Amino acid sequence: METKAERRPLEHFTARSLAGLAAVVAAGIAFGILLALVRFQFGPLYDLDHGVATSVNAYVSEHEGLLDIIRFVTDLGGGLKVWVVILAVLALLIRRQVRLAIFVIVSGLGALALEPTIKLLVGRLRPVVDVPVAHAPGNSFPSGHSLGAFVVYGSLLLVFLPAVPKRWRTAVIAAVATLVALVGVSRIALGVHFVSDVLAGWLLGAAWLGVTYYAFRLWRREDGRREPALTEGLEPEAAKELKPAPRENAVLPHPWVESAEIVVGWVLVLGALFGFGMWASYHAGGTVLAALDDQVPRWFADHRTELLDGWSHYASKAGDTHTILAVSLVFCTLVLARWRQWRPILFLALVMVGELTLFLASAAAVDRPRPDVSHLDQNLPTSSFPSGHIAATLCLWTAIALIVMARTDRWWRWLTVAAAVVMPLVVATSRMYRGMHHPSDFLGAIILTGLWVGLLYYVLRPNAEAAAADAGDDLQHQDRGVRRFARHPA
């Protein structure tokens, strides 16, 4: 006969399953009721939606600083969440967590399919406000940002929760819930959604995420695995694999010493840039460099075509802030997923932060005019020397090549070296073609990259762990060879 102790786990699982199923059904029913009220233009709800839209718009439209914050928050529920999903799936696949990657993909694709379908069926127009501060295409009900944020950030929370220490889980859950709430509120504040649109997005997101969550639990049950509580996440057994990296006792062995070296080095690099920039900009008359600075931009300006104008625009985009940041985030995610070390991440972060600050400081100090030709880019906030686009591209791809070359012997590592050469040349050519930089600005970017990246590589030694691991492997091979020789002497 089955004892009470033997029945208890089954009872706990049944109770949790029924409670969760009831919550999913309740979210679905609530969404259906809200949909009906919107379709039939229920008076109190209609008045609430339009009253809030009008009053919020009147307040927000008068505060430009607040608008910048709201736009940033709403971006977290827009295209940015797609990149978050891509990075998460890549990391999970590299860590061989295929089941969890499938869960994230299915959850995201479901939300992506539900939003336009229901919007088309309902056909509700977006709010009309006195002072439009944002524009959004398509219909209004439900809010795609609210739905997507709930599903994407909720699914990632369920996936990565096992890697969060138990004492921090409540705070992390609260932070994700706050983020989802702020994304929804931002859509109302921008005047592109009614209150009921946002509520509908949350309810539909909760229902869909609940369905995928319980489907995953059934998958585990079929494999004979235990059913974890919601606060344990989807795969508690994968906690070790889901952690970004183990704790490193000495990312910087002597942090105060390294910090001082970096600060002193930054000042010296700035001095070198300032000295070269002032000479090239104002005192290099009669030299070959001065002739190149005058003739190269003119030659490019004389050979412009409509086709090359378009090409140079996209080539320049390879060195702008958004592209550099996106590539940096993708690379850092891959490094953590593959090699599980923080030091190369710190190296890349300091390279890019240092590049930005050195570029801004030297550009302000030198204050060099742009080439004396027509400019295809207008209203740039900085001066000509050095080129920020070229310097950022050089620093990024050089740092990537230095990290990858020391950590793998696969053939594709040479692609990073090729990128470190080709990408800066492409960006430099496009910037000079568009009349934005002199050849000496390109040379200034090379000086910045060589001095700054070299300094950080010497101080931080981003591949120290990889070198130590290789040395350990060599010692093991030598030790095996000695033992083999001892057993079978010549």
Automatic annotation (TrEMBL):
Pfam families: PAP2. Coiled coil: none annotated. It comes from the Bacteria. Keywords: Membrane, Transmembrane, Transmembrane helix. SMART domains: acidPPc (SM00014). CDD domains: PAP2_like_2 (cd03392). Gene3D superfamilies: Phosphatidic acid phosphatase type 2/haloperoxidase. The chain crosses the membrane at residues 21-42, 69-93, 100-122, 142-164, 171-192, 198-216, 262-282, 321-339, 346-366, 386-404, 411-430, 442-460. Residues 100-213, 345-457 form the Phosphatidic acid phosphatase type 2/haloperoxidase domain. PANTHER family: AT30094P, SPHINGOSINE-1-PHOSPHATE PHOSPHOHYDROLASE. This is Phosphatidic acid phosphatase type 2/haloperoxidase domain-containing protein. It comes from Asanoa iriomotensis.
